[in-house]
Amino acid sequence: xxxxxxxxxxxxxxxxxxxxxxxxxxxxxxxxxxxxxxxxxxxxxxxxxxxxxxxxxxxxxxxxxxxxxxxxxxxxxxxxxxxxxxxxxxxxxxxxxxxxxxxxxxxxxxxxxxxxxxxxxxxxxxxxxxxxxxxxxxxxxxxxxxxxxxxxxxxxxxxxxxxxxxxxxxxxxxxxxxxxxxxxxxxxxxxxxxxxxxxxxxxxxxxxxxxxxxxxxxxxxxxxxxxxxxxxxxxxxxxxxxxxxxxxxxxxxxxxxxxxxxxxxxxxxxxxxxxxxxxxxxxxxxxxxxxxxxxxxxxxxxxxxxxxxxxxxxxxxxxxxxxxxxxxxxxxxxxxxxxxxxxxxxxxxxxxxxxxxxxxxxxxxxxxxxxxxxxxxxxxxxxxxx
Length: 386
Description:
alpha+beta, 5 helices, about 15% helix
């Protein structure tokens, strides 16, 4: 065949271009002869699609001119005019005031509610409620805007009301604590974040107990012991010796004199200095057990791991029934003038010294005691005394 086999739609084989928009141009159908054939535009030099006069395929096959590409050969993607019903304006002379389902789509529907007998075609904004006005006056209400109002929810359930009580909150807290305790006991979570887990807490407490035990072993004070020097009783020094009178009396049987006892405090069991806030001493006759003296001392500090000597001032005083009282006789014979004895030797004093101590670092009162069997009386009575 010697007819032109070039494509009828490709612009590769064609002539000159023109300014016609082939996609938007509306071409008449060749099957409607009553309409006149429109004037063909100037052929495009780059395409043979619009070249109706020089189409070799048309001249060879004897066909008429091609219809080309028209607008009716593709689907319209969207509407360009308002939605209409089953009729148009030409067929209906007057506007239908009945219900129109297309009115909302064409922005022609009502904008305000006519429930209160008012009607307004314009837009009117609904005012914000005033906090001073508690109730709305329905008689003077304006147009109500059709806004989307959510429907009222259901009433509160009994379970919801109970969840808002304090008892329910406490119950939830207990349940939360129980869940956390179970999770911690299983080693899933920590007590203070991710650190104090169960295993770490056991190790930490064990190590803390060891460290605390070591610290307490060195810091807790020990109750000291004491002993007496070779001369347990000595004369008191001023100003204490001037505060107490010295004398013995037979009727009634009594005596009183100031003295001081030499004590050696042993703090070998302590690792830090020992501080005693207060000390109280009580002197008891070793034979009869009656109290014959007392004394007190204020705050004292003693070095650790040493034997510290100090004097404790005592007030010896006793009141008996008569001069045959054994306690009065023992102390009178020990303090008489040595010249009244053939060998010039007086009998020694025998007593028991009890010291009550309040030690810093220990709770409560601690006491220690020691006995003296060979003590010289610190005073000497005259030969003509009682």
